[in-house]
Give the backbone structure.
Amino acid sequence: MNDPTRPNAIALHTRDLTVAYHQKPVLWDVDLDVPEAVIAGIIGPNGAGKSTLIKAILDLMPRATGRVELFGKPYAVQRRLIGYVPQRESVDWEYPINALELVAMGLYRKIGWFKPVSRVYREQARAALSEVGMADYADRQISRLSGGQQQRVFLARALVQDALIYFMDEPFAGVDAATEKAIVDILRRLKESGKTVFVVHHDLESVTEYFDYLIMLNMRVVAAGPVDEVFSSENLRRTYGGRLTLLDKAVNAVGRTM
Amino acid sequence: MTADLILRVVLLTDYNTRVVVFGTVMLGIAGGVIGVFLLLRRRALLADAVSHAALPGIAGAFLVMVAFGADGRSLPGLLLGALIAGLLGMACVSVIDRYTHLSEDAALGIVLSVFFGFGIALLGVIQKMRGASAAGLASFIFGKTASMLRSDAIFIGVSAVAIVVVAVFLFKELRLATFDPAFGASDGWPVGILDLVLMALVVGVTVLGMQAVGVILVIAVLIVPPAAARFWTDDLARTTVIAGAIGALGGYVGTSISALAPRLPAGAVIVTVMGVGFVVSLMFGTSRGLVHVARERHRLLMRIREQNLLRALFECEEAGAAVDTDRQMSYLGNARSYTGAELGRALARAERDGLVRRDERGVWAFTNAGRARAARFTRNHRLWETYLLEYAESAPSQVDYGADFIEHVLGEELVAELERVVEREGRRVPESVHTLKRGPA
């Protein structure tokens, strides 16, 4: 829920965030101040460091320099405030686990060390599955789900984390239109209840429809701010370079919002 | 070999056999349980490198113990040496993998072969030493269960129980760390440490297995039973239990066979028995076994063929072509790409299933059951077709021609709307014989 004593708090603050692997920096000097209760898109060309940004914020990847704060406190002490949806390809879908057990992983933190997943938690996981329209698939082994269904299960796992800030790495990649719509509905619901959501995204045409905040990335932050302020053809050119087809698409997309 | 001897071995009345069987069964259980997580973590070959890397540790421990005037063949001492060298080998793999451009498979190959080669060289040195009896050390290469003492078996048993207990307590944590370490780390779990714990358990099993099956084959204890278990279930807890059971069975049967034929090395026989278990699982596993998969596939084909035939017959009636044998046969032949023989077989099968029968004119007609089923298939098919047209983007992930009632998938409302669309196009939708069942949500 929104804290009324803290209107427009800064949900995510990064200063001077630089990430390097194999002797090569992949993200430089990322300075961000993202307010709470927004759906923030992270866009940029392939290799721009979109996933890397999320992983560096979440401490999944060593940072060369820089500071990350959530609601004004260092990430390390605020860790329980975050929820994460990794890229779908990052796990082995042949793993012997069903949809319900996968969702329950989001509750492990609450359950604590050594204890098995008790009935109460299984019911919570089941409720989250219903929320993403997957109640009927609870017992199904995850390789027997379609791509869109797998993505919904991932989303349900993040929902049970009951976080304040969500990071989602390409949740729309390779999903069917019905799933895309279901995900967008959930993003909006999260936002309405005061949560902040970061979404790595590829499709420029849906940017204005889905997001109200935008981070345009190409190894550095090209522009970050409310979508209607930063989503311009000038910024798109600076993010994606002068590639014609892309620019046409982008100009169309920008044109529609004007 | 007498029946009496066989009976004595199988029933474990023989003291020595009993000791060895206990040791190998416990080893099999621990290997099966831990191996499940090792396989899921995709680190099977790392365990192989670790076990090979342990050989110079055994030789080194022998030399150190002799140098201090102790008995060079004390098992705990040798295993400690194996443990240290194995961990060192594992550390080398991860250092090479992380800090150089070489990939992990190269690192594994280097560590495995160089450590093992060095171990063989050390054994050669020991053999040349005067006064030091190196007898028995070479048995660590292929294993020698016969040399297992009561104390050794108890040591293996206690360690195996400890290893399994750790895995049971950390079941949920190991599942998280092996399935989605990035998510686990983001959620605050020390996945790096959990990974280390898993690897330590793997090294533990490896070291325990050295005496029984040898450094070369011990990897099989960790890999074969879990791989076999996967054919029987899609549930992790059950996979673990089945893998432990196959491991135990391998230990029991393998040891018994080698007790009956003392010239057969037990380690090799145990691994071979586990291999038989793997092949049986691969063939007959009830979840992913080849026979099961083939049977499912066959069932699907039969269902599709039956649906197609019934639908063709139904449409034949609708078209008014079911009046005499010739017209019916030519309609069916045109409707689907049947050859005459295929059509005959399909009709014969449907007749056997009580769906169709021939009337006095020789024309094929539905039985009551057949008509109901044909109407349902035709209805589902027409509605799905329309659904695909109307909702082209979202449909492919939802369309399920095999579903008994389209209403179960799409809901009553949407189906009613589709019915209107089909009828607007001047086609008929056979009525649903389906009475709505409200299942649990």
Remarks:
- Chain B touches chain A at residues 40, 42, 169-173, 175-176, 178-180, 182-189, 230, 233-236, 239, 393-394, 396-398, 441 (CB under 8 Å).
- Chain B has three domains: 3-287, 289-366, 381-441.
